[in-house]
Amino acid sequence: MTKHLLDFIDLTPEEFDHLYQLCEKIMKHPERFVHAASGKVSASLFYEPSTRTNLSFQTAMLRLGGSVIGFSDPGASSVAKGESLKDTVMMMSNYADVIVIRNPWEGAARAASLYSRVPVINAGDGGHLHPTQTMADLTTIRKHLGRLDNIDIGLCGDLKNGRTVHSLIKALSRYPNVRFHLISPRELKIPDYVRKYMIEHNQKFIEITSLEATIDTLDVLYMTRIQKERFTSESEYNRHKSAYTLTRAKLSSARNHMLVMHPLPRVDEIHVDVDDDPRAFYFQQARYGMYMRMALLHELLKHPQETPVSVAIGGSRCTNPRCITQCEPYLPALEHDGCCAYCDKELK
Ligand code: CP
User: Residue 58 pLDDT > 90, yes or no?
Assistant: First the structure.
């Protein structure tokens, strides 16, 4: 099993399958796991707001018999005094057996992993990736459609900034015959590196602006919020907010078996009148997230603590203004396939 979970594709399909089976066992017999993490401590470092990810990780650790430390307001930690990510992570990995981190900068979890003695889990890094949400998403699809291949999935909303979408596309690109219907305003289309990933993996995808044009062909409809916090101006956000609203009336043309999913929180993109439709799975999806996080913690806690390999200090060549290297200048420049290894943006 991978030591760190920074990107969903750090897990092989076999490792995901193993976690899925373990998740099923935990759901069926939670009483068998109540001491599984006894004596272990997780550190939740949340530099950004969260309800589901933070509290489901904490609940997961407590349900395994472990304990939790951390912060959900960096302003109440020494981050407010100017402490770097590196120093905070080095401290936390002295205290805890696993670190769960959410940070607004893209690539922050990978940066944290360079300095940690213990596994680091990416709980969301800016608009980049959110791998444990993908674990909840795939669990929902697999349990309720019975497969992860041969599906038509519509992803609708802010596909540029929605990190759950980026992780989910990368994950599903590993399965055959997945057809992506990418529904967004033109200005909020998927980032280039995600498009490139689908092309490299021979995935079929269309990019369109109308939900109504495609809803009747889908097995899964994955709605997302317009990510207000990623816009640089209020007026730009106002132009796009409420771009899509799924209502019960719009669902009338959808297939009976279609799953309506959403990583949550929602604002207005799914009307409350959809909640009682049997196709609405978003609250169930969040519940699976807790059990999947139990399975993940259970496996990652098996790793022994190791002193991290020292990394040379060096300037970063990444020009993405949202990349973690912009605000933590000591980070070494890291590259993969011509892209920044932290944020995946192409290095010019
Ligand atoms: N899905 C998700 O990441 O929700 P939170 O922001 O509440 O953690």
Answer: yes
Q: Which atom of ligand 1 is nearest to the CA of 123?
A: 3
Bond from prior residue into 191 cis (ω within 30 degrees of 0): no
Structure tokens at 46: 């949340």
Mean pLDDT of 97-117: 97
Contacts from 16-23 at CB under 8 Å and sequence distance 24+? 16/135, 16/138, 18/299, 19/135, 19/292, 19/295, 19/296, 19/299, 20/138, 20/139, 20/142, 20/292, 20/295, 22/295, 22/298, 22/299, 23/139, 23/288, 23/291, 23/292, 23/294, 23/295
Q: Evaluate the CA torsion angle 169, 172, 175, 178 in order and state its sign.
A: negative
Residue type (1 letter), 34? V
CA of 49 relative to ligand 1 center, distance in Å? 8
51 touches ligand 1 (CB under 6 Å): yes
Cα 56 to ligand 1 centre (Å) = 9
DSSP state of 222: E
166 near 343, Cβ under 8 Å?
A: no
CA–CA distance, 128 with 121 (Å, rounded to integer): 14
Rounded distance between C-alpha atoms, residue 105 and residue 124, angstroms: 9
pLDDT in tens, 257-310: 999 999 999 999 999 999 999 999 999 999 999 999 999 999 999 998 888 887
Tell me what pLDDT residue 227 has: 85
Q: What is the pLDDT of residues 206-221, one digit of tens each?
A: 999 999 999 999 999 9
Structure-block tokens of residue 43 = 């550190």
Ligand 1 centroid to 315 CA: how many Å?
A: 32
Single pTM value for the model: 0.94
Which SS3 state, helix, strand or coil, does residue 122 take? strand
DSSP count for the chain of H helices, then E strands: 9, 11
